[in-house]
Fold this protein.
Amino acid sequence: MSRSFSTAWFAAAFRPCRAALIVTLAVVAAPTSVAAITEPGTPPPDAVDDAVATVRKDIAAATRELAEFNRRTADERLPLVRGNRRLQHENSQLRDKLSRARRAAESTRTAVAEARKEIAMFEENVRFIDNLTAEYRRAFETRISPGAALLYGPDLKKLDDILRQGAPSDRVQALPPLLELIKKHADARLGGVRFPGRALTTVGEAVTGKFVEVGPLSFFAETADPGEAGVALSRPGSSLPTIFASFPPDQATGIRELARTGKGTVPVDVTAGAALKLQEARESWWQHVKKGGVIMVPILGLAVVCAVLAIVKLISLHFLAVGRADNRIQAIVEALERGDPTRAMDLAQALHKPLGPVICEGIEHRDAPKEQMEEMMYERLLAQVPALERFLSPLAVGASTAPLLGLLGTVTGMIHTFRLITVFGTGDARVLSAGISEALITTEYGLMIAVPALLVHAYLSRRVRRAVALTQQAATMFVNSLKFP
């Protein structure tokens, strides 16, 4: 700003001097013009001289002013140069400060970015620890026994209160008490622990007693004597464990002693409860049948009918001729040749059905022609075939109907299952077990009835066909052994 002001002031002061200098140069450069003015009618030379003198005075004044200006300019130049140098130095310092400020700002931005990364990493670690804590909290309750769940109930409730807070940084505070609870549980598993509590009996009654936790094993003995004693098992939907007390008396006594004194001989399940659950899952035949629903009534009725028919038919076919009777037929023929029809009739009546009645028919018509005798014997055989095949058709119908009834039960069971799915959804498989059991059990019993019935029907039909074939063979041999006129 000082430099611009000085330059403007110098230009304004120099303007009069520049005008006077231009006039002087014009006069000096044109002497012929002064001579020409001396012609007639022009002003006198003295006026020109006066003008020149005036101009010279002006030039001298302007020169003095210029010299004064130069002097003042020289006087003012040194402070201006010093001021300019000072301003340049200040400018350089400001530039250095600006450069340092920019470097500091860049360093600050880098530090802020690193800090944000660390904060993000820290937040990610906090979320991971939060999720890990919540997951292990859920897993911890599934890994402990039902009795230990009652023992650690207050501690677990405190953990749940902390884990229900909104921010992950607040929920992370549940980690130290969770680790302390894990250590406490590990110490108890190693050395064993006894504590009072309540459990459910096999009939669903809540009783008071003592739990004994030894490693993965959990026992319970009722306080009342004798009371129930056994292994404590968890049940879905129940806050109290259930006592599995199906143990021999000596083992139950050992569990009671362990609960009372801390010492006793107890059974150990090496399957970690799997064997006990399988034992409990076993059901009686009647319980299994009841799960099949109302369709099991006709299926069981059909099973009874098929069984009765098969037994009756097996007994009736037990007395059929099952082998060749060549020797007996020859004895009958020899008796007839000797003229002893009574002996021949006695031997024929001793034969099994259907051979005996057919041979008796032939003996009664021994005097008839051969073709007539054959026709009469064949007619007697045909008259016995319906009796031989009796109950075979109902047995075949029962064998065919049983799978259809099982299929009917399957359809009704699936309809019941889908109805439950519509109401309750697919979240709980236990709700769907009734329809699934009805669908599978009816099919199971339908096939269990059909397969044996078909096999028995095939066996009995084969017995009947064999008896008829043997009878035809024996009758033919009897006719061919007789002598006709």
In short: The beta strands are 193-200, 206-214, 217-222, 229-233, 242-244. The two ends are 170 Å apart (CA to CA).
